[in-house]
Design goal:
Number of domains: 2
Strand content: 15-25%
Largest sheet: 8 strands, antiparallel
CATH class of the largest domain: Mainly Alpha
Shape: globular
Structural class: alpha+beta
Distance between the termini: 48 Å
Amino acid sequence: MKGMQEKDIYYSIAYKIAKYLAKEQNNNGSFLGRNFCAQTFSTLLWSYFRDEFELNIQNAINYYIKKDKRGSVLFPHPWEFNNYALLHYHIKTKDPKISPLIGNLRFVGDRVANWTLLRATCRFLKGGFLNVVKANLELIRVLLWFQKNGFIFDETGHANESRSLQYHCYSMALLAEIYELTRKEFIKKRFLQGVDYITRLILPNGDALYVGRGQEQIFGYAALVYVLEYAHKLTKRLAYKQKADKVMSYLLKFQREDSSFPLVLREEEKEYPEEIDPQDDRFLGWYGYNDYFDYLSFLGYYLMKAHMVRVQIAHKDTKHTTKEHPDNTTTYQDDNFLLYSGPIYTAVISRPGGYWTNDMPFPYVCYRNESIFPCYGGEQRLKSVYTTDAIPLPFGVSKSKVWELRREIFFLMRKIRYFVRGNSYLIPKFKPINRNKLVFRDKLKYKLTKNKLIGRSRYVDHTRIFEFQQDTITINDKINFKKSCRFDRLYPINYPFFDVRQITDTEFIFRYKGLEGRLIFSNPCYIEEEEFYCARGAIKAVRERMTSIKFDKGNSIVRNLIIELK
């Protein structure tokens, strides 16, 4: 087995992460900066190489036993994650120091899907009649959130809808483990449906987590590699292994010389913050709850899990099924995502609505092995560098108009109610008030049907049609006014790019990592001076600005953009 371990990329990278963590660990067992479960997940990772990291393990355990676990209202101590790591470590090693820490399991009780499944996993690991009953109830609750197509929302509800590909992957990783513990076939079926869903959205370069909270974070890529390997083990379908290899290759592009990884897969992220500040543009894509050593140790552990699965497959001398699964098609469509895959490029659209990071109303394109266009949104519960102005949809400003006042009053009263109840940490979940802005992504409810995004509201309807040709993409917009509307400024064209240069009033060149293409707009545009941000970097917006303009009921405007890939 040792020889196999030396050849296995998962083992190799996990071992290098383990060594990096050992180097960064302080003498008292702590790590620099805030962290909540770095000690427990590092301990679990180190236990696979126990002889080498025994001192690190004991220092980490001693520190965790003594550390203040009260947390805060906004960031409570993540008992679920620590319970998971400690339970696994105790099952693996029978270390008597751990027994008091897992005697009576405590939980935060967060009701999002991935935390609920994590609690269920902990209860199954702990065992006992009451724990198993509660675990099954939590499992059933989450399975009710499954969509027919295999996707699982991490949160539901119009304003709070979380269409996170990262947390979908982690939920699948937990379902895989629950199946291992229970051997219930309906769990296996749901797991494979969920894996098939994310498999469709993995781009040719291995990029996969570009939509939803946690865009491009190592946490999700760790889970994704594991679930693909586990699906390969269950089905013997080579397509899953090939996808896992592709995702791993993408992940390795961002590994640093010291064997660490950025928390968000971005070459410009060279270090980690001691204190998390979502307004710091050095750490784009970070959220207030992100902690570097928590996530890095999690990555190392799940790479070891992927390694162990691959070892089991190799020992079984598995004969692979050659059929690709799910079937390779040029397009995929559901209520939330549209995927086009052609010989030159692959493009993904995601329906706007809920968290800002759900929105992908402009094609996310993989071209010549690079993801050439931005993702959108970011931390919105705390003050951050992100804004709805950077989401590629129209918006307007009217100082004399309060748009949808009744809805804003409703959300204001909801905020007050949560504040009075002492749940002030929930307040930023609700829609921010843009009193004098008609922000299409907030005010319009969008549906994705065939190749169209259709948004409707009391004031305006917006239709966006996508046409995918061999080496071009055409975007046709139509805005219909259902009531009289006056704007100080209206931006019917609003498209951000990483690097863009103006050639004429209607022609622009975009660039990304040596690749470039041409943008041809139907109307004169300009490049906004203000810099915006997404999880993958700074972006500049190409816009059309209409000033001091009024539209009567029944008026409409039409715009289009042609994207030429060179």
